[in-house]
From TrEMBL:
Role according to the record: Involved in the oxidation of myo-inositol (MI) and D-chiro-inositol (DCI) to 2-keto-myo-inositol (2KMI or 2-inosose) and 1-keto-D-chiro-inositol (1KDCI), respectively.
Keyword Oxidoreductase: yes
Family indicated by similarity: Belongs to the Gfo/Idh/MocA family.
EC number, as in UniProt: 1.1.1.18, 1.1.1.369
UniProt KW keywords: NAD, Oxidoreductase
Name the record gives this protein: Inositol 2-dehydrogenase/D-chiro-inositol 3-dehydrogenase
Domain Gfo/Idh/MocA-like oxidoreductase N-terminal as annotated: residue spans: 3-123
Annotated source species: Sinanaerobacter chloroacetimidivorans
Lineage, broadest ranks: Bacteria, Bacillati, Bacillota, Clostridia, Peptostreptococcales
Coiled-coil blocks: none
Class in the EC hierarchy, top level: oxidoreductase
Molecular function GO terms recorded: inositol 2-dehydrogenase (NAD+) activity; nucleotide binding
Associated pathway: Polyol metabolism; myo-inositol degradation into acetyl-CoA; acetyl-CoA from myo-inositol: step 1/7
Pfam families, A to Z: GFO_IDH_MocA (PF01408), GFO_IDH_MocA_C (PF02894)
Length: 334
């Protein structure tokens, strides 16, 4: 039986996930869509022979929908996730789970009251083969204990509504999650450094921002989040251990020698960079939902990322390092 999925938000990634669920993933079909922009929802519904619903709540409650994928704007996520839990439906929520840790706690409380995991967060880098290989190297002990991390997250340009907080909650949140997953430990403190602003960024946008994190075991992490690199979409990550280092490779690209130059192409948009990871993420989620046991990033992971993001934002406002204080992890999420 195919899993019938309803997609909330038919913008950039929503449409790409609908295509993926239809053409790439096995065992699923998109039966329903919705968007506050009715025109684009209706267009996607027509293209994929799905129903178009007037609101996210109507879609969540529909008997035509077994599970929900949320791909609407960040501030709408928490409300829709809570409605999915209330309806007893599995939900894959694009990152971030919410825009504050307080809303993540509400989600965890609702899920624990329901009594079973229903929520997965779209931290898809965990499904990328190179990040997975990096984790194997760290766990093998080949580079000794990790000491330092150098990471960068460069976007070529940003949307006009991008804000200082979104640099953390919308973009840097990927590094917050993937480094916590790679190192298998929580953060102890957080700080944001800002400096000279890129004149190509929107007026008032602090860009780039340097996110400094220190883990409970003392691993020091520096992440450049740059929304206006001007040249491309570039994700880098290097872990420095006691006896060696491991580094995320650049995506494979042809090396071209011509016209007196040796060149290779760099991606320009995020949508080009983690295609296999999105495919793996969605296939695994569909398989897991059909077996009624989720294995992907949980509401706890969404919370841990958001509380770190909250601390980073407080640090940027206060100019000092601030502690990251997580609640005790409920056994439910072990
Ligand atoms: P987008 O603006 O292209 O699309 C979002 C869509 O949601 C828009 O069509 C908008 O009309 C719709 N929408 C907004 N509020 C809504 C509501 N209350 N109900 C229904 N629809 C609503 O943005 P996008 O780039 O596709 O991002 C969508 C989400 O996916 C964001 O949360 C973003 O953080 C996340 N995202 C994740 C990744 C990733 O790498 N995992 C990449 C891009 C975006
Ligand atoms: C976008 O929402 C994403 O999630 C992309 O993966 C990220 O790189 C980009 O900065 C975000 O705006």
């Amino acid at each position: 039986m195919e899993l019938r999925i309803g997609v909330i938000g038919t913008g950039g990634i929503g449409r790409d996930h609908i295509r993926r669920l239809t053409d790439v993933i096995t065992g699923a079909k998109v039966t329903a869509v919705t968007d506050i922009n009715k025109e684009i929802a209706d267009k996607a519904a027509k293209q994929y022979h799905a129903l178009s619903f007037p609101t996210g709540e109507d879609l969540i409650e529909s008997p035509e929908v077994d599970a929900v994928l949320i791909a609407s704007w960040d501030p709408t996520h928490a409300g829709y996730v809570l409605s999915c839990i209330q309806a007893g439906k599995y939900v894959l929520c694009e990152k971030p789970l919410a825009t504050t840790a307080r809303d993540c706690l509400k989600i965890m409380d609702a899920e624990m009251s329901y009594g079973k995991r229903l929520v997965q967060v779209g931290f898809m880098r965990r499904y990328d083969k190179d990040y997975r290989a990096m984790k194997e190297v760290i766990q093998s002990g080949r580079i000794g204990e990790p000491l330092l991390v150098h990471a960068c997250h460069r976007n070529r340009t940003h949307i006009t509504s991008h804000s200082n907080d979104m640099t953390v909650t919308n973009s840097g949140i990927h590094e917050i999650d993937i480094l916590r997953w790679l190192l298998e430990e929580e953060y102890a403190s957080a700080q944001v450094l800002t400096g000279k602003q890129n004149k190509n960024a929107a007026e008032g946008l602090q860009d780039p921002q340097i996110l400094l994190l220190k883990t409970k075991n003392g691993v020091q992490i520096g992440i450049e989040v740059n929304m206006t690199s001007g040249y491309g979409y570039d994700i880098q990550c290097e872990i420095v251990g006691e006896t060696g280092t491991v580094r995320l490779p650049d995506p494979s690209a042809l090396l071209i020698r011509s016209e007196g130059k040796h060149t290779h192409q760099i991606f320009t948009e995020w949508s080009q960079r983690f295609v296999d990871a999105y495919d793996n993420e969605l296939q695994q989620w569909v398989n897991d939902v059909k077996k009624a046991t989720l294995s992907g990033p949980s509401a706890w992971d969404g919370y841990a990322a958001c509380i770190t993001a909250d601390a980073l934002i407080r640090s940027r406002n206060s100019g000092t390092s601030v502690p990251v204080t997580l609640q005790r992890r409920p056994e439910f999420y072990d």
